[in-house]
Design brief:
With about 450 residues, this protein is an alpha+beta fold. Helix content is about 30%, strand content about 20%. It has a seven-stranded antiparallel β-sheet, sandwiched between helices. It has a five-stranded antiparallel β-sheet with strand order 16-17-18-19-20. A three-stranded antiparallel β-sheet has the order 1-8-7, with no helix packed on it. Strand 19 and strand 20 form a beta hairpin. Helix 2 packs antiparallel against helix 13.
Length: about 450
Amino acid sequence: MMSARVRDSMLSMALVLVAVATLAIPTASGGAPRARGQDPVEAAFDSTCRGVCARLRLPALSVALARRGRPLWAHAYGVVEEGGVQATPEAAFNVASLTKPITGVLLMQLVQEGELSLDEPMSRYSRAYANDSVTIRHVLSMTSESHPPGEAYSYNGSVFARLGDVLEKKTGQTFVELVVHRILEPCGMTQTIPGTGVVDSVTRWLPVLGATRLSAYAREYRQLAPPHRLFGDELVRSIPPPSELDPAANIICTAGDYMKFMDALESGRLVADSTLLRMWSPNTNHAGARLPYSLSWFVEDYEGERLVWHYGYWPDDYSALVLVIPRIHATLVALANSDGLSAPFYWTEGVEGNPLACELVSLLLAHSRCGMAVDSNIVRWQRKHTNPPHVAHPMDPSRAAAIVGTYELPSHQHVRVVMDRESLWWSPSRGGRFALYPDSSDRYFMK
C-alpha cells in the first residue's frame, strides 16, 4: 500500500472516470434498413431512434415497443464495443433507476398479502430514522425529506434504497432473492442479472442462488454493453458503476426482458389491477396539490393524457426510459450505454421532453407540441460537451511512478494504478484499464 502522502496526492487527483478508447458513433443512416411493408408508425419511430443515436451520441440503443402486452417491435442501433460490434436486441444494459418500479412491485405485493402497510413508520425497519414521522409511503413516493414528510417531492435514490431494509426485515430474504423469486423467474426474465455482484462474488451467492442460476448470470454478463461517456465531443469508454443490486439501481437486462416485467405488471400477474391503479394514480400532498412521483413511478397528465414513466440515469455510464400510456395500453422501453438518453432531460418538464417519448406520444396520440422542448434540451446539453474538461500535459515519469500502487475507494472497491511503457493506467476490478493523463504536476485525469 502507499504512504499517507502519496495517498493524499492520489485522492486529490481530478479523475474523470472514463477510458481512452473511442467508439464509432452511429449515424442517422445506421442500423437495419426499413423492412418492406413495415407499419408507418414503426417506420417513423425507427427513423427517430436513428436520429436520437446521432444527436445524443449514443454508442448503442436498444428499444422495445408493445401494445396490450403484445410485442410490436424491437430493434437495436449502433455498436456496443470497439471494432464495430453491432448492437442487437440481446445486448444487456444497466437500467439504473428502472430498478425502482421493481422495488415498488415487491412492496405492493406484501401490501396485497396483508403483510405490510405503507403507513408503517420507517423507523420500524431502518436505523436511519430516529422517530415515526417518516412512513414507507413517504419513501416510496419520494416525499420523505420534506417538512412535514409528504409535503413535497425530492428525488433521492439513496433514501429510496432504504426500502430494502423493509423488504428484507419483513421477509427474512435478501433483496436479491426477492427480485429473483418474485420478479425475474415468474416473469421469465432469462436475460436479466440481479446486479453484477452475483457474478463478482460467486462464493457469497452460490449457497443462496445455486450454481445453475449463477452460471446463467455469468453467460448473460457477457452480453453487457460496456458504458461510455463524452469527453468533450469524443466518445470514450467509462468505468462501470457499482456492481451490487439495491432497491434503487443496478438491474442488468435487455430491453425485451424489461418489457416482460412490464407485461406481467400490466396483465395482473404481479399485482392486482386495483393495486396497479394505486401505483399509477397521481400523488398529492396535504393541501391536495399534485406531486410528480407516485408509488415508485412518475405520473403526469400531458395534454389530457395520463403518462406513467420512469427514467434511469447512471451519470457517465448508462441511461434508460420506460413509458406507459395506460389508456391505449402502449409501452416503450429504451436502454443506452451512455447517459445521453437521460442527462439532457427532465429538468423543466416531464417525459415529453425526451425525444423518444415525444415521438411516441406524437405518433400514437397526435400530440406534437413537445418537439420544441426536445430540441431545446438537446441543444443545451450539446453546448456542455463542446470542449474537453481537461487538457493533458507532458508526463513526468518519476512523479508518475510515485503513485503506482493499490487503492481502496469509498465504495470499498480496490483499484490498481500501474505503469506500462511510461504510461499510467487505472485498473479497476471490472471494465478493463484506463489511461491516466497529467493535468498538472500532481493531478491526473482519465478521458
